[in-house]
Amino acid sequence: MSIIGVLSPFDIRITLKEVRQKIVEQSPIFEPDDLIPVTCNLDALVMAYALKIGGILFAKQVKYL
């Protein structure tokens, strides 16, 4: 985890695992397998894809071979 800039006593730091968990908890469409670590920085970046079709949002699972 990188820390850049000025920090205050109120800064809250959480791990990427915790960020992924919060996204799944708060999102009505994403499941844990939908969130993919970004290979250039596995410890700090995660991505997910979604499609909006006819006003409905769908999680798009990406499978790697």
What does the model show?
The longest helix is centred in the N-terminal third of the chain and has 11 residues, at 16-26. The chain is an alpha+beta fold and 65 residues long. It has 1 helix and 4 strands. The model has no long low-confidence stretch (mean pLDDT 81).
Secondary-structure topology with pairs:
Blueprint: H1 16-26, E1 36-37, E2 46-47, E3 49-53, E4 56-60
Quick synopsis:
The chain is α+β, with helices and mostly antiparallel strands. It is built from one helix and four strands, in the order H-E-E-E-E. The longest helix has 11 residues, at 16-26.
Task: Give the helix proportion (percent range).
Answer: 10-25%
Q: Radius of gyration from the CA trace?
A: 15 Å
Main sheet: which strands, in order across? Answer: 1-2
What's the helix count?
1
Q: What's the β-strand tally?
A: 4
Key phrases:
1 helix, two-stranded antiparallel sheet, 65 residues, extended, alpha+beta
